[in-house]
Design brief:
266 residues; two-stranded antiparallel ribbon; disordered N terminus; 4 strands; 7 helices; mainly alpha; globular; 55% helix; disordered C terminus
Length: 266
């Protein structure tokens, strides 16, 4: 009984540790970026200059009708809502919102149900307690993945972890674009670069997962299998996010859309 309780508590401790660490890093970064003399007087400093918004919202190989949504999505909080850069604080908030988003919870529930049916890992056994262990494990892995890829590495490398959807793309164009987003990302200056943060984030997350997973899952082979699964889930998520504005439009929620509108770009 005590070992089962301990195994359940490890993922919770990991999530709490990541949140505490992210708060510390985010606070230090915000302090370091504060202008000299801030708070010393009442004179208001001018706002930092913002880059001009390009007509297509981005540049590079995927520039055609790629934009951002006009309202934040609760289900997919990483869908961009503006074309401007995202600071360290914004990346931290995105990491937190991702960790508790319905998409992460739903994915953890589905993945855990599949693993329950396969009895993987076998050390968890069967029953509701075992299912709870699997859900906690998947949530902890997803949160640590978001911590490393969305917040820590993205902040260190000045990369933009958000997803910029296309506007009503054909299916195969969406497949290509969703796959490209796994290896290509915007940096904070708006240029396309190799998605280093997104590529090494899953490896760091799965390395951390070996601290609380059963011994049978702590091998290099199992870790690589989980990394492959992480990328598969991310590709599927990109496909959903690319069509998410269209879904809302078809449901009559016109306030949620991709801008700029391709109909006004001819």
């Amino acid at each position: 009984m005590s070992s089962q309780h301990t195994s359940r508590s490890y993922p919770q401790k990991i999530i709490c540790f990541l949140l505490a660490l992210a708060l510390r890093v985010s606070g230090n970064a915000a302090f370091a970026q504060a202008p000299a003399g801030a708070g010393a007087g009442t004179q208001q400093l001018p706002e930092s200059p913002q880059p001009k918004t390009e007509a297509t919202g981005t540049t590079g190989v995927t520039e055609k009708f790629v934009g951002y949504m006009t309202n934040r999505s609760l289900f997919f909080p990483d869908i961009a809502t503006n074309p401007g850069p995202m600071g360290t604080g914004g990346k931290f908030k995105l990491f937190v919102n991702q960790s508790i988003s319905p998409a992460y919870i739903l994915a953890a529930g589905i993945s855990s149900a599949v693993n329950q049916a396969r009895n993987v890992p076998a050390a968890y056994g069967q029953g509701w307690d075992a299912y709870g262990n699997r859900v906690g494990e998947d949530m902890a892995r997803a949160s640590s993945n978001s911590f490393f890829a969305t917040f820590l590495f993205a902040s260190m490398l000045h990369q933009d972890p958000r997803f910029f959807p296309q506007s009503d793309p054909p299916f195969w164009d969406s497949v290509k674009y969703s796959a490209q987003r796994l290896v290509i990302i915007r940096n904070d200056a708006g240029y396309h670069v190799v998605n280093t943060s997104g590529l090494i984030g899953p490896f760091a997350a799965e390395g951390l997962a070996n601290a609380y997973l059963p011994a049978s899952e702590q091998t290099a082979t199992k870790s690589l299998e989980r990394v492959g699964t992480d990328f598969a889930w991310r590709f599927a998520g990109n496909m959903f996010k690319n069509y998410w504005p269209k879904v809302f439009h078809d449901l009559g929620l016109n306030r949620l859309k991709v801008v700029p509108d391709p109909a006004n770009m001819h």
